[in-house]
# Entry
Amino acid sequence: MKFLLELSFVGSNYHGWQVQQNAPSVQKTFQAACEKQIGPCKITGCSRTDAGVHAKRFYCTVENDLLASIPPESFPLAIAHRLPPDLSVRSARIVPDDFHPRYDAKAKEYEYLICTSFPSDPFLQGRSWMLLKKDMDGETLARRMNEGAQMLVGYHDFSSFCAAGGKVEDKRRTVYYCRVKKQGEMVVLQICADGFLYNMVRIVTGTLYDYACGRITDLSSALEARDRDAAGRTAPAEGLYLNRVFYEDEERRRAQNEAFFG
# Structure
């Protein structure tokens, strides 16, 4: 029996999703909780995440024969008492044995939060990029970042937006949308693509910030260079959230996201 689980977690205390030899990870923590509840099981995630990155909707599968006796709607409550407060199971459903949470995903959406309030809100520490220097007001920053973001939409080689250490050879991806707006004291970036490279969203965010501030003047050339040195800074991990994973068709995905600028 295989369940698809929707998780939420604050990544501040973890070195990403993937199991690490000498560091705490979300997967290791969740695996331990599941094994105490249902015994040995196989857990597969929809994505890796960097240390300190959060997730509003992260998907993983859990496989175990005992699951056949557990109604999926009961699983989140059954496992809740074994999980730390920064990790929760939001929902569970049965999926076919050949379902894979990573390879069956049609697209992923990430969100990046930049805190523009001065003085800064201490409750947002570790959960957003806290700007120490106010280069411009939040409305202007969002408008300029959003202007640059439109140059990244479409099918491109994103080599300039991949950190050293990325092992994927084909760096071509389709970005369905990349947009930025001001929400309260936050500047919020949303980006959706059919796949992401190592540190790609953080580099996109940092580069758009540098573009908004005038440190980078030609994003098209930075993209076409296919060289990491041509892009901007890497934004810190704590502002990044895996916002959702799409397993449905493209038209439904687009329709669900029309409200961002509504």
Summary: The longest helix spans residues 26-38. The beta strands are 2-9, 42-45, 54-63, 87-94, 107-115, 129-130, 154-157, 172-183, 186-193, 240-246. Helices lie at 26-38, 75-80, 138-149, 200-212, 219-225, 250-256.
